[in-house]
Amino acid sequence: MKYLSLKPTRSLWVLAVSVLACSIWPVAAFPEGPPPAHTGANGQPDCSVCHFAGPEPTANSGLTITSFPQEVSPGAVYELKLQLLGPEQRAGGFQVAIVNTETARVSVGEWIVDENQRIDSENDIVYLGHSEPKSAVHDDGSGEMLTEWILRWRAPSENPGPLRIIAAAVASDHDESPLGDAVYVFKTSLNDE
């Protein structure tokens, strides 16, 4: 009487799990945009729950948002520049929210969506994020790879009070997996009284 060996079955099982894991990674990398509530604000996770094991940041690496007004005027539209610098990034993605500092749980103003951007919301906070990754270019000034976006935001019609801008971004190696990506977070206050 011959007995069947379990080794081929176990090998097939390991192969099947490996194929499944590899097929899930591109989905886990969120190339179509991040899920809502991943800015790292108010106890939320940031992009590092899905993207990790990226290169160590250099002194020039990081996430910045510039072109802030000194004081927000009701109803005005502002163009903010989000810049992501990473040593080995090939593409980038982001998510940003502007909330009232006093409540920290309610969005303020309105995002104006541009090409390759999208809006999501969760628990009274509206998030602007990428709808597809954007390719990085070499930045001669920093020596890093740079991805940047223009964000357009309309202030509310009444004085919004003190504001907090929270953003998270991924400097991706663009291999359609969550491995090898670096995550950066940015937070600042505006309109402080």
UniProtKB/TrEMBL annotation:
<keyword id="KW-0732">Signal</keyword>
<dbReference type="InterPro" id="IPR042307">
    <property type="entry name" value="Reeler_sf"/>
</dbReference>
<feature type="signal peptide">
    <location>
        <begin position="1"/>
        <end position="29"/>
    </location>
</feature>
<protein>
    <recommendedName>
        <fullName>Reelin domain-containing protein</fullName>
    </recommendedName>
</protein>
